[in-house]
Design goal:
213 residues; binds 1-O-pyrophosphono-5-O-phosphono-alpha-D-ribofuranose; 5-stranded mixed β-sheet; 6-stranded mixed β-sheet; D-Maltodextrin-Binding Protein, domain 2; 30% strand; alpha/beta
Length: 213
């Protein structure tokens, strides 16, 4: 029979910039790892972790199915997925803001018509404006959302803003910040209940001056 206490903990990381930041942090805390030759599975040097490199928006699916017990994920992706994961830690990096934006100088104009908004974050957008009692028509895009007002698809967009450079370069600007977005270490609740001791030890090792330290 497999001794699950000896198996490494499983962790899913999103492809891209966040993984580079996690990699640096884990290296500083003695859990360095690297993905060799386009491999999508890696182990940390101490054999504590088995790490999977997945597409950002697929990460909650892997955690929900228990394929990876842990993951690094932003509030934006968590909100869209809607699964009841545990948030074990908030990292000091990766913070952005979810904003509604439009052409420079534009304002939110409420008429008897629905606000037409393009976004990758359709659940967030619908939920936010429905709580405000504002009717919206949300058009789903998968990327380069800033093009929507530029090309006249919609007057407004809801998108992540980090430096604001993409908006500025396209003559757009933030009309209103809707929410702070942070990056968390998350866990599948059932996985956490089985492995909580080892997981808590691992979380304690990660010192990055994050919001919960
Ligand atoms: C994100 C986001 C904005 C941009 C904001 O897009 O959706 O487009 O970054 O960053 P900034 O405020 O620093 O300019 P991403 O790079 O993930 O690409 P995408 O538009 O193809 O989704």
């Amino acid at each position: 029979m497999k001794n699950i206490e000896k198996e490494p903990l499983t962790l899913a990381l999103p492809k891209g910039r966040l993984t580079e930041q996690v990699k640096e942090l884990f290296e500083e805390n003695g859990m360095g790892f690297s993905f060799e030759n386009r491999k999508l599975v890696a182990h940390d040097k101490q054999g504590l972790l088995k790490i999977y490199l997945v597409k950002n928006s697929d990460l909650p699916t892997y955690i929900n199915h228990g394929i990876a017990g842990l993951g690094v994920c932003g509030d934006d992706v968590l909100f869209e997925a809607g699964y009841p994961f545990y948030k074990l830690k908030t990292f000091s990096f990766g913070g952005t803001a979810m904003c509604i934006a439009g052409h420079k100088g534009d304002v939110l104009e409420y008429t008897d018509k629905e606000l037409k908004i393009a976004s990758k974050f359709t659940n967030f957008t619908r939920d936010y404006f429905s709580k405000m009692g504002i009717p919206v028509e949300v058009i789903k895009l998968n990327g380069s959302v800033e093009l929507a007002p530029v090309l006249g698809l919609t007057r407004y967009i809801v998108d992540l803003v980090e430096t604001g450079n993409t908006l500025k370069a396209n003559n757009l600007e933030v009309i209103e910040k809707l929410a702070d977005i942070n990056v968390h270490l998350i866990a599948n609740p059932a996985y956490y209940k089985i492995h909580y001791k080892r997981i808590n030890e691992m979380v304690d090792r990660i010192k990055d001056g994050g919001k919960d330290e």
